[in-house]
Write a structure and sequence with these properties.
This protein has 192 residues and is an alpha/beta fold. The protein has one domain (5-190): Rossmann fold (3-Layer(aba) Sandwich), CATH 3.40.50. It has 4 helices and 11 strands, in the order H-H-E-H-E-E-E-E-E-E-E-H-E-E-E. The strands form 3 sheets. Strands 3-2-1-6-9-10-11 form a 7-stranded mixed sheet. Strands 4-5 form a two-stranded antiparallel ribbon. A two-stranded antiparallel ribbon has the order 7-8. Helix 2 (24-41) runs parallel beside helix 3. The protein starts with a helix and ends with a strand. The mean pLDDT is 93.
């Protein structure tokens, strides 16, 4: 399917509206289910580097999952937007203070180590059952994944969203990076 920008924009608007319509209490309950499914479904080796994210607007709250993962033998990091084109992944510990990192986000400060994740927990607006996704339109994760691939790394990409953000089909473009799996309140699902 062609990556028609008008179709993508329509799908993004519809699914974000559905996500926004979830009540705060419902989002909290679903985020706790996502944490439970994430712990059961994420496969990682000791010492793995896992990138999560903190919620903006009505996104899934991954802090419950990240807090438990911090007690495992892994290193955590969060994306930090450096500019409109670039994100880096800075080391995160749930007990360290976060700073404003621009573009409505908070994260580890400049003194935190920059890491290359083995697993990327990716926020998104829309996804389908084939692993295609629509982000927020800036392309940060596509570029970050491409940069990791150019370093010879192949991170596992796990989309994290509420089930209401799934659609039958996402229009994909050649530069779009497919997800390996998706994590919702309904469970953890790997794509073929």
């Amino acid at each position: 399917m062609s990556g028609d920008p008008l179709v993508k924009a329509r799908l993004r608007g519809e699914r974000l509206a559905a996500r926004d319509a979830l009540g705060k209490h419902e989002r909290v309950e679903k985020s706790l289910l996502i944490a439970r499914h994430g712990l059961a479904g994420l496969a990682f080796k000791p010492g793995a580097i896992i990138s999560g994210f903190l919620p903006i607007r009505s996104e899934v709250d991954l802090l419950p999952l990240l807090t438990v993962l911090a007690q495992k033998d892994v290193r955590l990091c969060l994306p930090v937007v450096l500019d409109r084109q670039t994100i880096v992944f800075r080391e995160f510990h749930p007990d360290i203070p976060l700073v404003d990192t621009g573009f409505g986000t908070r994260g580890p400060g400049d003194n935190a180590a920059v890491l290359d994740p083995d697993i990327l927990l990716v926020p998104l607006a829309v996804f389908d059952g084939q692993g295609n996704r629509i982000g927020y339109g800036a392309g940060h994760y596509d570029r970050a994944t491409d940069k990791l691939h150019k370093k010879g790394l192949n991170p596992v990409l796990v989309g994290v969203a509420f089930a209401c953000q799934e659609v039958p089909s996402v229009p994909a473009e050649p530069h779009d990076v497919r997800l390996h799996a998706v994590l919702t309140e309904n469970g953890f699902r790997y794509f073929e």
